[in-house]
Amino acid sequence: MRLRHPARLGTAALVLSLTAVGCASGGSGSSDGEAAAARKTTVTSCGKKLGFDGPPKRAVALDQSSTEVLLALGLQDRMAGTSNLKTKIAPEYRAAYDGVKVLSPKILTSEQLRAAAPDLAVGGFADYFTKDRVGTREELAELGLPSFVSAVDCPKRNTVDGRARTPFELLFKDYADLGKAFGVEKRAEKLVKEQRATLAGAAKTKKRVKGEPSVVWLYSVYGDTPYVAGRSAMPSEMSRVVGARNAFDDVDEDWPQVSWEEVAKRKPDFIVLGDLSERGKPGDSAEDKLKAVRANPVMAKLPAVRKKRFIEIPGTEMDPSVRTVSALPRLVTGMEDLGYVR
């Protein structure tokens, strides 16, 4: 869940830090030679054009999703820092991540951002760029700091001939745009190709699914309040890809707060439990969620609960990130085990 963090933008200090960027050292991160030569590049991010006179050398990631995308593109040597980790870094990126400075384990403040002397701020969501966090995108642009926001968080600005792109297409656009900005286009193309193959493999399942089973994606439980995937969350698209239907597809939100009674009313055929146990809060683990589901008298009567129709998936893979496609094979295997796939 995205929570506000009080912070005000220190304009004067940020100007001084940004001025120092030209003197700051940064690795090239370009063993393949793609970004060896400085060149002017322009990409569009969430409706704003970002111009680069050369590949960024001191990028700051504002969340785990952005961190892992940059690491997947082999850009650890051009990262001035990371922040706001929800869980452990994926094993395949751990060695690269260990060489990057952690500016904050929580949401970054404006003071922490400016202290890193960045030349690019990358965030998975637009609401990291507010006055009470690192500053608005307009404020940062005035100070010479471009900001990149994932296309997944602004789908209406990323249509093709008036047609909305799928969430996965928006993710692939992020890889391509960041690849272009950093001069590592070939790496981005390789990443897109690999993830398209996983997506295509999962899509073949649709022909083998019996009917269109409905699913509730349970992301968080705070107290006795469940948060589930709505229509604009990534799991809604994942459901469609494999031939299932998100039971809360009629709610145009990412993760709406609902009631157990509302979940039971939807009568899902099965339930996906998001495991965020590494975050360490009550209700985060899949086990905690399962206990909450079974403890509720209304939910306990559901056939999905009585017949133990549950699939466990890492919660991080339910958010838009370089890890999201990894949830698809898990989902398919779970549906096969539950008998929904022929």
Automatic annotation (TrEMBL):
Residues of the signal peptide: 1-24
UniProt keywords, alphabetically: Signal
Domain Fe/B12 periplasmic-binding: 58-342
Family: Belongs to the bacterial solute-binding protein 8 family.
Annotated InterPro entries: ABC_Transporter_SBP, ABC_transptr_periplasmic_BD
Source organism of the structure: Streptomyces spectabilis
Presence of the UniProt keyword Signal in the record: yes
Record-given protein name: Iron ABC transporter substrate-binding protein
